[in-house]
Amino acid sequence: MAGNQPEKADEPTRAEKPAKADKHAKADRSAQNPRHDQSVSSRLRSLGWDPLDEDTRKYRSRARAALRFVLQRGLFRGLVRANVTQTVTTARRVKAVRGPFVLVANHTSHLDAPMLAEGLPWAQARYLSTGVAADYFFHVWYKRLFVRLLFNAYPIDRDGSRKNSGFSRRLLRSGVPILVFPEGGRQKTGTMGEFKPGAAALASSVGVPIIPAALVGGYEAMPKGRSWPKPGRPPVGVVFGDPMMARDGESVVDYMERVRAAVVDLYDTNYEQILGPRTGPREEH
User: Fold this and answer.
1) How far apart are CA 259 and CA 237, in angstroms?
2) Burial of residue 185 (number of CB atoms within 10 Å: 0-12, 13-18, 19+)
3) Does 28 score more than 50 pLDDT?
4) What pLDDT is attached to residue 104?
5) pLDDT band at residue 278 using 50, 70 and 90 as cut-offs
6) 142-163 b/e (C-beta count within 10 Å ≥ 16 → b)
7) CA–CA gap between residue 225 and residue 188 (Å, rounded)
8) Is pLDDT above 70 for 59?
9) pLDDT given for residue 72 in this prediction
10) Which residues form the Phospholipid/glycerol acyltransferase domain (predicted)?
11) Distance CA 34, CA 28 (A)
């Protein structure tokens, strides 16, 4: 009788078995690599950006982005490559990032911002905005025009006025990625300093990934005090690592330490390929 037969619903179908197997395999991969299942795109992308206002609209201007493409990828790239031997290495997952993010890098010289901006894939760099000192770049009209056109720059207060406080967060929530140098200034000796946790706190609170990047050779090519690279087209490399997301329950200090460790690893792993064999003892970062 039909009532004595086992119900088919109790047995997994052929379509369900692979699904369960895939689910277990994915769980195993996630256990081995905690970032495997983490999206490298901002959760804001699914929620939508904040409406653009008078202050943020210019940072997502398509016309300005088109002009910046010509300036960065044409004129400025030619100028950089005429004075340094540039190499760019980009992790595959960087190109998977959609929406805003925080680009975090060591700060070796005045070459850093332009090399990062023109080295990042255009899909991610299109609206990249760089924070610059308000007192130095934004108080004189031609400096302000230069950094806005070339770096989509926004002002950062160094005088304690807090006039522009919170603008980084507003940009991220408006869909604009930002570049941050968490050391707080250019290196004076070529040794990487400590990273302040502000970038990690910002990325974690807004829900965007951090892309770690290492500048290799920037200090050697143009140390603090020089206004132009050394002659002979010295080698300088930019290395973009895999995007990183904050882990559940992770403090911003621990998150920033993990990001710094990634930057140090990118630097050390690519040092000899870019600058050649080390001639002295390896510096501890």
Assistant:
1) 19
2) exposed
3) no
4) 97
5) confident
6) eebeebbebbbbbbbbeeeeee
7) 9
8) yes
9) 92
10) 101-218
11) 10
Contact assessment for residue 168 and residue 202, using Cβ atoms and an 8 Å cutoff: yes
Residue 253 to residue 192: CA distance in whole angstroms: 17
Q: Give the sheet arrangement for strand 102-105, strand by strand.
A: 85-90, 235-240, 210-216, 102-105, 178-180, 129-133, 154-156
Q: How does pLDDT run across 105-151, given as a tens digit for each residue?
A: 999 998 899 999 999 999 999 999 998 888 888 989 999 999 999 99
Whether 218 contacts 236, CB under 8 Å: yes
CA separation (Å) from 146 to 9, 72, 154, 163?
Answer: 68, 12, 12, 21
The predicted pLDDT at position 65 comes to: 96
What does 70-129 look like in DSSP terms, one character per residue? HIIIIIIHHHHHHHSEEEEEE-GGGGG--S--EEEE---STTHHHHHHHHS-HHHHTT-E
Specify the pTM: 0.81
Q: What is the DSSP letter of 244?
A: B
The reported pLDDT for the residue numbered 29 is: 39
The dihedral formed by the CA atoms of 29, 204, 200 and 40, expressed in degrees to the nearest 10: 40
User: Rounded distance, CA 109 to CA 152, Å?
Assistant: 19
Instruction: Give the residue ranges of DSSP H helices in the chain.
Output: 16-32, 44-47, 62-70, 77-83, 112-119, 122-125, 134-137, 141-151, 167-173, 198-206, 218-221, 252-275
Collapsed DSSP state (helix, strand, coil) of residue 52: coil
Give me the pLDDT at residue 158, please: 76
- Is residue 246 classed exposed, middle or buried when 0-12, 13-18 and 19+ CB atoms within 10 A define those classes? buried
Which three-class secondary structure state does DSSP give residue 182? coil
